[in-house]
Amino acid sequence: xxxxxxxxxxxxxxxxxxxxxxxxxxxxxxFAPEDLLAxxxxxxxxxxxxxxxxxxxxxxxxxxxxxxxxxxLESLTAxxxxxxxxxxxxxxxxxxxxxxxYLFHKLEGLQVVDQQLGPIGRLxxxxxxxxxxxxxxxxxSGEILIPAxxxxxxxxxxxxxxxxxxxxxxxxSLNR
Length: 176
Hints:
CATH class of the largest domain: Mainly Beta
CATH superfamily of the largest domain: RimM
Shape: elongated
Number of strands: 13
Order of helices and strands: EEEHEEEHEHEEEEEEH
Radius of gyration: 18 Å
């Protein structure tokens, strides 16, 4: 998605309002929360599809979510209708991962191949938990949730668009 000439990436979902001063609770999906905490502005895609650029007044971590306060939306009544909206950042606000992790937009759509079962589907989304990121793979067996940890994800090859995994026996049937 783009806004003018800026390429945008979905980094989170507004899951609630917080407090009386217009903070929104954002569940970060597929990106480092630090990118959102360092940003000076965000793009908000409302439920009706309208996108607007907003300056940030305050950001903080709170119980696994990021709290944001945006200029012009500084009351509970101003942000209540934003629940379900999407938060986006431009390329310039996203850091390259230096710890062996990848930005999700570079992984989305990869063919996922298990060491024992072969191709199991395509990577369609990702969400973050307190313990680790979790990949969501959609394939013939339905939706499969794979913890994004080295013991399960053995190799990622962006050139050939393949993620190799070594899933424990029963993980796929557990997800059904």
